[in-house]
Design a protein that fits this description.
- The protein has helices at about 85-95, 150-160, 165-180, and strands spanning about 5-15, 20-25, 35-40, 45-50, 55-65, 70-75, 75-80, 100, 105, 120-125, 130, 145-150.
- The chain is α+β, with helices and mostly antiparallel strands and about 180 residues long.
- Strands 7-4-10-9 form a four-stranded mixed sheet, sandwiched between helices. Strands 1-2-3 form a three-stranded antiparallel sheet, with no helix packed on it. The protein has a three-stranded antiparallel sheet with strand order 6-5-12.
- About 20% of the residues are buried.
Length: about 180
Amino acid sequence: MDELPWEILESEALAEHPVKIVHERLRTHTGAVLDYYYQPRPIQVIFVLPITAEGTALMIRQYRHPTRRFLLEVPAGKVDTGEALEEAVRRELLEEIGAEVGELVRFPAFYPQPSFNAAVFHPFAALGARRTQEPQLESGEMIEAVELPLAEVYGLLESGGIEDASTALTLFYARPWLERQGLL
């Protein structure tokens, strides 16, 4: 790694769980001193658009406390230590919507908010999605599985009905592929 352009003057952990958050006092390349708060650990997160044989999308409507609202999203979750991305996709789909899938299609990874954290998001499409069991939600999750035609999902995206940025970017990445496959 290249030498850091900013000098770390002080660093303290403000929280360790469920995510680490640090406060650092920095001297920038211009000599200015500033306070910076962020999540330093690079974590891997998957986002997946599950598509059924009938051409519908298995989405979730999830309560997001900071927004005080339910948002329409694609299933997503943190990749566990030592877990392959594809394994995380399959595990999260079983946990959040009780679905199994066939082929996985991976799209380019992205940093969703590099000013605040080092998380890397990995979007996927999953073909042959089918519900096989009841979801196994965590105690802090309030999720409802929603099945929608792909055209309706993309209509919501275009009209502003998809407000979660990571879901929107997953859908944007998937669109050209879905069109080439004749699914959209």
